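Bug #77: duplicate submission created two jobs. Keeping one. Sequence:
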Amino acid sequence: MKKNKVVAIVQARMGSSRLPGKILLNLQNMPVIWHICERLSLSKEVDKVVVATSDKNQDDILTKCLDKNEIDYFRGSEEDVLDRFYKTADFYKADYVVRITADCPLIDPSLVSKAVLALKDDESLDYVGLACGAGVFKDKINKYPDGLDTEVFTFKSLEKTWNEATSSLDRGESVTSYLWRNKLKFNIKTISSKNDYGNLRWTLDTPEDYEFINHIYNELYNSKPEFGMHDILELIKEKPHLVDINRSSIGQVKYGEYYDRNNNS
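Kept job's structure:
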């Protein structure tokens, strides 16, 4: 019996207005993008890790880094990110797709596995996402820290989205917004957290975010490279001042209506 292939795709490019070149910033002597790919490879449910970047010259420096570190990648449209994402998944013959963005160097491998298994265990589902980030911005549920954003979906649902989505919003950086906005067409599930950590910011978008994440890596990486959410929570409990480093960045990004998973329009 053929084993369904799970491909984790990291959406990445060099352009960043708040923190230029953030995906190549150094964490424990390796670039951010390397750590993200390495952490995804630690998930027992992931068969392949790939970076999906643009075909613009500005991203040549990224692909050189990926080549140097033997990380697979696919290049496509900068503007039509949905097309780039779909073609990456198609090229690597994915049955299930894990979507991760390159601003998540604290991504938790065990939570990635949890989301993949939730989708695999229920054949009626098209999409599973952790309660984190833009898609649950307005939902009154227990959330994971911002920066653990994990979405898993079938290739068939991605292909349907690629064929049907027409707006620049749905074909842009959000990639999956058409999918989880159309509940009459797709069956989606959101995994909430046991406790609410929606006030914690673990994403990489500002210099303060980088300072915070660098502290986390300096504290945990050498003793436990595969550290996860609970290890970070324990560290924060011991050193609560760490959350003050990037507290001012919380709420800087305002999510539009189209991000809301409860919006069926």
